[in-house]
Amino acid sequence: MYTLFRLSYSALWLIILPWVTAALLLKQKHRAGLAQRLGLWPEALQANVALVRALHDGSEQAACYWIHAVSVGELNAMKPLIFALLAKNNAVFLTTTTQTAHSLAQSLVQMTELSAELASGKLLCAYCPLDAPWLARDVLLRVQPKALLIAETELWPGLVLAADRLRIPVLLVNGRISPRSFQSYRRIKPLLSLILARYHRFLMQSDADAERIKTLGAPVERVSVMGNLKLVAAPVQQHALEAQWRQWLGLTLPDGHQPDCAQVQTGTIEARQLNDLSPLYPYVVVFASTHRGEEQALLGAYQALIKAMAGTKNPKIKLVWAPRHPERVAEADALLKAEGLDYVKRSDLSPIHSDNVENVPQLPSIILLDCVGELNAVFACAQVAVMGNSWGLVQQHGGKGGGQNPIEPLMAGCLPVYGPDMKNFEAISAGLAACHGAVALASVEALPDAILNALTATVQRERQLAAAKGWIETQNQSLALALAAITGL
Q1: C-alpha to C-alpha distance for 227 and 477, rounded to whole angstroms
Q2: Higher per-residue pLDDT: 156 or 351
Q3: How far, in Å, CA of 411 to CA of 7, rounded?
Q4: What integer pLDDT is reported at residue 73 of this predicted model?
Q5: Average pLDDT of the residues in 255-277
Q6: What is the average pLDDT value for the chain, to the nearest integer?
Q7: CB-CB contact of 402 with 432 (8 Å)
Q8: Over the stretch 151-185, which tens digit does the pLDDT of each residue have?
Q9: pLDDT above 70 (res 21)
Q10: How far apart are the first and last CA of the chain?
Q11: What local confidence, expressed as pLDDT, does residue 263 receive?
Q12: Pseudo-torsion of CA 453, 455, 456, 461, nearest 10°?
């Protein structure tokens, strides 16, 4: 049965590959990576892969691992694992599927090259090949990884089958099977079980995820619960970028200088608390990873908030709006113009040098974030993050909903506010609800009052952040468990 499935899957790809290639060519966002998806690498990538292979060939102290993370969400979850492997002198070949995730992967390569702690390892990134087994086999032979680590919910039959034939262990890391995906997968359980039998380990986020993957046919003895990597803070800091954002947002100190990064980290002074010291400094709110269908309502909430803030001691507020996908910036641009709101795009901002802080231009109250890899630096400057995809408004526009990861703003000291649809983060939202570490709302109509309260009730906000971080610390054994399973192969 397995041999028949493998041959049939390869034959299917022989038939559909020309059509898939043509379809990708027709989509602007897929053209840039199409050559790599077909196994055609640029010379620089080929040379770097060959160098990494030579350095780690036969080494017992370090190895090369292939990590595949489809999109930004999976990549952000895998960052702690990537950095931990690099810190142990390993190489990581990181592949992604979406254009946004590839851009973020490229920024991670630059960050790790500048980090003294991670420079001993080597991070390479590329687009993942299409799932034709022979394309996957070609990349596996080039990279020769010690193991293939696939993030969260993706199964990729061609990649798994090719790795299995080359006897390269395949691990599902930070595995998650949502109730909706579980119902869909059950319909193809006989075929799915053939693929799952090729996995070496299943490192699942929760007991519920573990039970679902077992029900779908995963060998019981290979399934274990590791926890959620999204609860682990990635160690690489973006101090220079954070300092730049503080200048753009008007969060410089009274003498024109930046708060020292060490002071910010230790809590001696928080850049986001400058408005508590003086009404000269604005509050900062982030609309994080918003989707089509909810943005009109969120902008309405922002305008209501501006009116409510007018009667407070400090009425100044800055909004940083980050649409979920960069290609949707044009839609956000049109919406802001239609509402008559003054704004500037992040890509139009120029760096402000430390010796010129007194001549910082007066920027509009809204900054539209159209650059990849900067959201965590923005969180570090803000008090409140309104999480997109959580308000139950995207489904009528073809979206699936389910929320965004609230751990990212929390780890930067920014309080997340989200709506009733957090089904993709059920365990996290339940944990935060139990410790009162976030603000959960029943509808978007409650958003203006909730943001106003979170901004002005500083003591309460800091208590919530402390409670959330305390809960996170009790949950973050996932990285140690994942590393033990991976490096022990």
Answers
A1: 7
A2: 156
A3: 47
A4: 87
A5: 45
A6: 88
A7: no
A8: 998 889 999 999 999 999 999 999 999 888 899 99
A9: yes
A10: 28
A11: 42
A12: 80
The pLDDT of residue 353 is above 90: no
CA distance 345 to 348: 5
How far is it, in rounded angstroms, from Cα 458 to Cα 463? 9
In three-state form (DSSP H/G/I as H, E/B as E, the rest C), the secondary structure along 8-61 is HHHHHHHHHHHHHHHHHHCCHHHHCCHHHHCCCCCHHHHHHHHHHHHHHCCCCC
Instruction: Please state, as a whole number, how many other Cβ atoms lie within 10 Å of the Cβ of residue 279.
Output: 12
d(CA 353, CA 344): 19
Question: Distance between CA atoms of 76 and 69, rounded to whole angstroms?
Answer: 9
Specify the range with the lowest mean pLDDT, choosing from 85-99, 245-259, 395-409, 420-434.
Answer: 245-259
Quick check: 361 pLDDT over 70?
no
pLDDT given for residue 487 in this prediction: 87
Output the 3-class SS for the chain. Answer: CHHHHHHHHHHHHHHHHHHHHHHHHCCHHHHCCHHHHCCCCCHHHHHHHHHHHHHHCCCCCCCEEEEECCCHHHHHHHHHHHHHHHHCCCEEEEEECCHHHHHHHHHHHHHHHHCCCCCCCEEEEEECCCCCHHHHHHHHHHHCCCEEEEECCCCCHHHHHHHHHCCCCEEEEEECCCHHHHHHHHCCHHHHHHHHCCCCEEEECCHHHHHHHHHCCCCHHHEEECCCHHHCCCCCCCHHHHHHHHHHCCCCCCCCCCCCHHHHHHCCCCHHHHHHHCCCCCEEEEEEEECCCCHHHHHHHHHHHHHHHCCCCCCCEEEEEEECCHHHHHHHHHHHHHCCCCEEEHHHCCCCCHHHHHHCCCCCCEEECCCCCCHHHHHCCCCEEEECCCCCCCHHHCCCCCCCCCHHHHHCCCEEEECCCCHHHHHHHHHHHHHCCCEECCCHHHHHHHHHHHHHCHHHHHHHHHHHHHHHHHHCCHHHHHHHHHHCC
Beta bridge partners of 366: 319, 343
pLDDT above 70 covers a percentage of the chain that reads 88
d(CA 220, CA 210): 9
pLDDT for position 396 = 85
Position 267 confidence tier, pLDDT thresholds 50, 70, 90: very low
Question: Are 274 and 281 within 8 A, CB to CB?
Answer: yes
Structure tokens at 15: 């038939």
Rounded to 5°, the CA angle 23-163-30 comes to: 20
**pLDDT at res. 356:** 54
Total residue count of the chain as it appears in this document:
489
State yes or no: pLDDT of 357 exceeds 70.
no
Amino acid (one-letter) located at 480:
A
Two tokens at 187? 């319909």
- Percent of all residues in the chain with a pLDDT value above 90, rounded to a whole number: 64
